[in-house]
Amino acid sequence: MSRTVAIDIDACIGCEACAEEFPEVFSMGPADLPQVYNPEGVDEEKIEEIMDLCPANCIIWEDD
């Protein structure tokens, strides 16, 4: 089973850490909240790094 990175917008505090750290995956969208625009922009190991850095723990894996 594969998985895709996603953001729990309800939990997000808009700190922009994900977009600053990995702009090849995340960008800031409407209402200054991040969005995943390129889920394959970096490997899963790098995604795990930003998950650990996220102060709101709102970057998650969703099953495809």
UniProtKB/TrEMBL annotation:
It holds the Pfam family Fer4_13. Residues 3-31 form the 4Fe-4S ferredoxin-type domain. Its cofactor is [4Fe-4S] cluster. InterPro entries: 3Fe4S_ferredoxin (IPR001080), 4Fe4S_Fe-S-bd (IPR017896), ET_Ferredoxin (IPR052395). SUPFAM superfamilies: 4Fe-4S ferredoxins (SSF54862). Ferredoxins are iron-sulfur proteins that transfer electrons in a wide variety of metabolic reactions. Coiled coil: none annotated. This is Ferredoxin. One of its GO terms (molecular function) is 4 iron, 4 sulfur cluster binding. Keywords: 4Fe-4S, Electron transport, Iron, Iron-sulfur, Metal-binding, Transport.
